[in-house]
Amino acid sequence: IEVLDNEGRSALHWACLHEALDVVQVLLRYEASVNCQSLMWGTPLHCAILKKNREIAMALLQYGAAVNARDYVGNTPFNMAVHSSRKDIARLLLQYGAEVTIANDLDETPIAAAIESGDFAAVQAIAPLIRAD
C-alpha cells in the first residue's frame, strides 16, 4: 500500500481523489501513510480538501493527518478550505489544531483568501483567531 506513482502519489492519495471513503478506511486500517507527501498534490488530506470531502478529511484527521502540512505551493489544508469557501471543513480543521496564520509561498494567508473571495463570514470567523504578538 506504500507504492508510489511517478508523482509520489500513494493509494491513499488516489482513494481521496476518487472520494472512495470505504477504500480510504481500509487503507488507514492497514496503516497506509496518512502523511505521505506527493510532488504536486501534497498529502492525502490536501486531496480530500481539494475534493471538498469532509468525511474523508475527518477520517484522515482521526488517523493522525498533519493538519498544518504544506503542499507544493505552501498551502495548508486550512488555506485550501477557506479558499474554497468550505466553512464546515475549515471548522473541522480548526478542531484538530489548524494554524490560521500560515501563509503560502505567494504570501497569501487564509484571511487574505477569504477577503479576496468576498467571504465575509469566513473573515469574521478567522479574525478573532489571529493573535497580535
Descriptive account of the structure:
The protein is an all-alpha fold and 133 residues long. It has one domain: Ankyrin repeat-containing domain (Serine Threonine Protein Phosphatase 5, Tetratricopeptide repeat), CATH 1.25.40.20. It has eight helices and no strands. The protein has helices spanning 11-17, 21-29, 44-50, 54-62, 77-83, 87-95, 110-116, 120-126. Helix 1 runs antiparallel to helix 2, helix 4 (54-62) packs parallel to helix 6 (87-95) and helix 5 (77-83) packs antiparallel against helix 6 (87-95). The longest helix is centred in the N-terminal third of the chain and has 9 residues, at 21-29. It is globular, with a radius of gyration of 15 Å. The mean pLDDT is 90.
List keywords for this structure.
mainly alpha; 133 residues; 8 helices; Ankyrin_rpt; 0% strand; ANK repeat; 47% helix; Serine Threonine Protein Phosphatase 5, Tetratricopeptide repeat
